[in-house]
Amino acid sequence: MAIFDEELKTLRERVLRLGYMVESAVRDSVKAVVEGNDDLAREVIERDNQINTLEVKIDEECIRLIALRQPMARDLRFITTAMKITVDLERMGDLAVNIAERAIELSKEPLLKPYVNIPKMAEITQKMVRDTIEAFLKGCTKLPYEVINRDDEVDELTVKNFNELLAIMIQNPKIVPLAVKRTYVAKYLERIADHATNIAEMVIYMCKGKIIRHMTIKDEV
Amino acid sequence: MSGVSIENLNLFYGDFHCLKDNTLSIDEKQITALIGPSGCGKSTLLRCLNRMNDLIEGVNINGKVMINGKDIYSRDINLIQLRKKVGMVFQRPNPFPLSVYENVAYGPRVHGLFKTPRGAMESVVAKSLSAVGLWEELKDRLDVLATNLTLEQQQRLCIARLLAVEPTILLMDEPCSALDPYATLKIEELFLRLKENYTIVIVTHNMQQAARVSDYTAFMYLGELIEFGDTNTLFINPKNKLTEEYITGRFG
């Protein structure tokens, strides 16, 4: 394998590692909320440092490859995509930290009502995160389009969750601080799904050389 | 109009089929780069545009090369006029072993400008040297021997020598391959300025150069025109797998 190909392989592996780290941060943060496990939440917060360090490392590597290898065509698209999606992945990591922070706060409070919407959202969001990473790994498949389509489900659940909590808050204003924290968790998940959508769009660019951001998926299809 | 339209052009060196049915249209006042591995036919294609290949024994050409709406391979074409309109610059600067002034004046003189009023030649020399950015450097040294200039100056001078006979199309066969990176950048900047008035076709092995200067790029392989398109698209998202392999350095 040529040296440049080795370098690209290393870059791909690093992005995947970052993806897996973010995926487990999201998974564990939601688990911490649902199970009221503040130890797990603290672990997520501590691990974020590793995500940040790897993001910077990938960024530096991309800049180095552009400067020294002057990549063209699919190599150029791959490197610029790697550079952009790591920003989204790092932000997803931060949002997992936010969820973990709320998990710690919520673990000190009585359970308001069983978690229904948040686990559902988490399931979809985690699958989106996993699929975006796989899409990046496998390149040109239907996967990124499926990720983009699933974002609407998460958005709907965010609204549903908010409305349900709002109804409870109106009935019992004392639980507002607690309920607001739960709406935050849903909002963070919704943002994570948005970042997954961004990544899916960039993977499509990487494959096809076509920017589909700010288009509806119907335009693209 | 000084664009070039190449239609189903085939060229044979004896039995060897060198250019295979090349069809492409070169826009006026744009820079078109021809890229491809050694022996792919890009220089041969370039040399078809002012019929330089006519001078090689055993060459057989069919197809059309239309310039100004006229097929330059038709019988009634005036080759001297053609080569005046379609000038060429080569890999190594090849100034005449004459003074700077005489190098530029040579063409106009051959083409009969000596008959025009006194001072006309001086103004052609000044204008041509100015157009390539040499006038300020050399206006007080017009009598120095051209071969004593730096390589970059020599290449500029060779371009000025072309401009003096008022061409519309400039053919460049690896014009920077003998130059260092700084001189290369300066010559490339010159191309970008010349493009306002001339149609430029450049053969280059340097893909970064094609990417930097050209508006359109053609990728050739084994005599075939594999892909032709705007330079942006070709270098970011080429349509053909061979093009992609070549420009990403994974060829063969």
Descriptive report:
- The complex is a heterodimer of chains A (221) and B (252).
- Chain A is mostly helical.
- Chain A has a single domain, classed as Phosphate transport system protein phou homolog 2, domain 2 (Methane Monooxygenase Hydroxylase, Chain G, domain 1, Up-down Bundle), CATH 1.20.58.220.
- Chain A has seven helices and no strands.
- Chain A has helices at 3-35, 38-69, 73-107, 117-138, 143-171, 176-208, 217-220.
- The mean pLDDT of chain A is 92.
- With 252 residues, chain B is α/β, with parallel strands linked by helices.
- Chain B folds into two domains: 1-74 and 169-252, 3-Layer(aba) Sandwich (Rossmann fold); 93-166, no CATH class.
- Helices cover 35% and strands 25% of the residues of chain B.
- Chain B contains ten helices and ten strands.
- Chain B has helices spanning 42-48, 79-85, 100-110, 120-131, 135-138, 151-163, 181-194, 207-213, 231-236, 241-247, and strands spanning 4-13, 16-26, 31-35, 59-67, 70-71, 86-89, 169-173, 199-203, 216-221, 224-230.
- The radius of gyration of chain B is 18 Å and the shape is globular.
- Classes of the chains: A mainly alpha (221), B alpha/beta (252).
H-E string of chain A: HHHHHHH
> Strand order across the biggest sheet of chain B?
6-7-8-3-9-10
Whole-angstrom Rg of chain B: 18 Å
CATH topology of chain A: Methane Monooxygenase Hydroxylase, Chain G, domain 1
CATH architecture descriptor of the largest domain in chain B: 3-Layer(aba) Sandwich
Would you state the CATH class of the largest domain in chain B? Alpha Beta
Write the layout of secondary structure elements.
The complex is a heterodimer of chains A (221) and B (252).
Chain A: H1 3-35, H2 38-69, H3 73-107, H4 117-138, H5 143-171, H6 176-208, H7 217-220
Chain B: E1 4-13, E2 16-26, E3 31-35, H1 42-48, E4 59-67, E5 70-71, H2 79-85, E6 86-89, H3 100-110, H4 120-131, H5 135-138, H6 151-163, E7 169-173, H7 181-194, E8 199-203, H8 207-213, E9 216-221, E10 224-230, H9 231-236, H10 241-247
Parallel strand pairs in B: 3-8, 3-9, 6-7, 7-8
Antiparallel strand pairs in B: 1-2, 1-4, 4-5, 9-10
Helix pairs in contact in B: 3-4, 3-6, 4-6, 6-7
